[in-house]
Design goal:
Substrate Binding Domain Of Dnak, Chain:A, Domain 2; Rossmann fold; six-stranded parallel beta sheet; globular
């Protein structure tokens, strides 16, 4: 605790501007922990956001640092563009070229993060299929067979004139090999593109944006945006679209499918969310990051009798596992492990003083966690070869899937041994909410009709008859430039109030869980009458948690199933549906936004887009892309206006489909139902 004393003294000397806890977050647990951090003299992301203002030119996307003649900054004239835009960098690059290059480099970064995640999963999947590891197995054989069929792999074989099922081990190896090949195959196109509705696939073909392999599209962006290569913003965003599709319909979708096969396809289960899930008398382990390869093993080991008994020998009553960011979503949706918090709460979990170990892998990890951990007893453990920290108080235990259980036991044992080193300054906020998660394409279908009669037509019918106005995908990060969780919750509440059912992933999902919106009971409080009736009848929340940020692919496939069910058009762009990222922060969000736009979804971002300084390019994203793919970008920082833009788009699509007028309810007898089935 000597380090904490030093920090306090230094803070008193500095007396820097601090965040107002109430203005920083709508969440009482977060407010309490911000105030505690300030009392202890520990700076958090909320304070740093007050002390460091963003670069206005960078915000607009018009700063180029792609060569050593720069950075070249092209600020907008005070009165805006009047006539010809004559701004140029040293090489002559225009504002449109610079903004487009920066934008698609963000797509490349986001697609690389998601797709490298997917590659890691594919490598472990193949090792499991080949029986090279005992830790990972094929859990969902039905999904294995379904995925094999999508990939064009034979699942039956002819023996003596009779058709027999193929050996599942053989199928698994073939799926793993074919999946891993998607990252670097020499010719062809991504296998999963054919899962899209045919009209959408045809649009991609016509526009020339079908990804060839995942890695190539990311590498080509880096080449095209090198100094002196591609200088046409339309051609640049064409490649950005191709790379984003390689993420959404490639790396992310493969990651989701292979994780489901190995770890189990999610089905609804109950848990809790917020920092209050931590327990004073338990060993508290927080897993944080994005890849479930490690966290699945941590779950298994921390729940084992051996480790629980060992924890009791150290004076603890048990082991409390919690998650932050998308690792939280992964283990929540499959195991019901509580969610400790969102992206912006990661430092606060340590500031409780009750975190015995925080185990991190990749993406969205604050380097400042190491500085905060110095002030407490917390063991901060990095586990991935590509994600290490420079601070000397961070342990690095590289995780190897071939020795997964041994590595996980070592990590959990370190956390248990550290329980006795906990200081007296422990403050766990007493705030948490019940949450139902584990929804996906399969479980939604099951909820709509059971094992034998599951169909998305039930959902379609309720959209057609007006009980459900439309569908919204609300996803994405937190951003310290906004009030934590405020936009997430305001957008979602406005949507469900207006009978729009919400599908959520990522930190928006955790925010909704903390607010109690992932419980079926919330429908009676927050929903319009139509959505409320559907939720009460089916027994679902008005906000369906579909998983982590790679699981946005579930939203794409759910939309495709709605199209297949009929009655709501022939393509995703025909649906009364819209997408949203109210508090976006990362490059992954830009990649996600672009692949949703290219899949035909009207997509609204909060805050800003890094394109405002290039009005022509910004207009191209906002209007011209819609002519190619049916989807478009929009921007609105005010959360109520943001939601109303989505509702207006949904109403527009309802009118185009001719379902904008309420229909009379008809009592159907068996003969009527048989006609429908025919």
């Amino acid at each position: 605790m000597a380090e904490l004393t030093k920090v306090k003294e230094k803070a008193e000397e500095k007396a820097a501007k601090l965040a107002d806890p109430i203005a920083a977050s709508i969440d009482p647990a977060t407010q309490q922990m911000i105030a505690r951090a300030q009392q202890l003299g520990i700076d958090t992301v909320f304070d740093r956001a007050e002390q460091m203002k963003p670069c206005a030119i960078g915000l607009q996307g018009i700063c180029c640092k792609n060569c050593a003649m720069g950075p070249c900054r092209l600020p907008l004239p005070k009165g805006g563009i009047q006539g010809e835009d004559t701004r140029k960098g040293l090489c002559g690059a225009t504002a449109n070229t610079i903004a487009a290059r920066n934008f698609i480099r963000m797509i490349a970064g986001g697609a690389a993060a998601h797709s490298d995640h997917g590659r890691g999963v594919a490598e472990v999947f193949l090792a499991a299929a080949r029986k090279e590891t005992d830790a990972y197995k094929i859990k969902d054989t039905a999904k294995l067979v379904a995925v094999a069929k999508v990939m064009g792999i034979a699942t039956t074989v002819e023996v003596d004139g009779a058709t027999q099922d193929r050996n599942l081990d053989e199928i698994a190896v073939e799926v793993g090999e074919l999946a891993l090949n998607e990252w670097g195959k020499a010719s062809g196109e991504l296998l999963y593109l054919k899962r899209a509705p045919q009209p959408l696939y045809d649009k991609w073909t016509k526009a020339g944006v079908k990804p060839r392999n995942i890695d190539r599209e990311i590498v080509e962006i880096m080449h095209r945006t090198h100094m002196g290569v591609d200088q046409d913003y339309k051609n640049l965003i064409k490649q950005g679209t191709r790379a984003s599709l390689a993420d959404g319909w490639g790396g992310s979708m493969l990651a989701t499918d292979l994780q489901d096969i190995m770890f189990g396809t999610p089905y609804p289960l109950q848990s809790e969310a917020n920092l209050g899930i931590m327990k004073q008398d338990h060993v508290n382990i927080i897993v944080h990051g994005h890849e479930p390869i490690l966290s699945e093993m941590i779950v298994a080991v921390s729940q084992s009798k051996e480790m629980v008994d060992y924890a009791k020998t150290k004076g603890a009553k048990g082991i409390q596992l919690g998650g932050i960011c998308c690792t939280a979503n992964e283990i929540f949706q499959r195991h019901g492990v509580p969610q400790a918090g969102t992206f912006l709460q990661q430092e606060l979990a340590i500031i409780t003083g009750a975190c015995d170990a925080m185990i991190v892998d990749v993406q969205c990890i604050f380097q400042n966690l190491a500085n905060v951990a110095k002030c407490f007893h917390t063991k901060l453990i990095t586990t991935h070869p590509i994600a290490r920290m420079e601070q000397d108080n961070v342990l690095h235990i590289e995780f190897d899937e071939h020795h997964a259980l041994e590595d996980a036991k070592r990590i959990v044992k370190i956390a248990i041994d550290n329980f006795q080193n906990r200081g007296s300054e422990v403050m766990i906020p007493q705030y948490k909410a019940t949450a139902i998660g584990g929804f996906g394409v399969e479980s939604i279908e099951y909820h709509l009709g059971g094992t034998f009669r599951g169909t998305y037509y039930t959902l379609n019918d309720n959209i057609i008859n007006g009980r459900i106005r439309g569908i919204a995908g609300v996803v994405g990060c937190n951003n310290a430039r906004t009030r934590h969780n405020e936009a997430h919750i305001a957008v979602v509440k406005e949507l469900i109030k207006n009978d729009v059912i919400v599908l959520t992933t990522g930190c928006n999902g955790i925010a909704c869980a903390m607010e109690g919106l992932l419980s079926p009971e919330s429908a009676a409080v927050f929903c319009g009458p139509g959505l409320k009736e559907v939720c009460e009848t089916v027994g679902i929340p008005p906000v369906l948690h579909l998983g982590s940020c790679v699981d946005n692919s579930r939203i794409l496939l759910a939309a495709t199933e709605v199209v297949k069910a009929g009655g709501l058009g022939k393509d995703i762009c025909d649906l009364p549906a819209a997408g949203s990222a109210p508090e976006w922060m990362s490059e992954k969000a830009i990649s996600i936004g672009q692949y949703f736009v290219a899949s035909g979804v009207y997509t609204v971002f909060g805050l800003h887009l890094p394109t405002a300084g290039a009005p022509v390019f910004h207009d191209y994203l906002s209007n011209e892309l819609e002519k190619q793919f049916g989807g478009k970008w929009d921007l609105e920082a005010d959360p109520i206006k943001h939601a109303q833009l989505m509702i207006a788009h949904i109403d527009k699509k309802r009118k185009e489909l001719g379902i904008d007028k309420a229909r009379d309810r008809v009592l159907m007898d068996m003969a009527d139902r048989q006609k429908l089935e025919a």
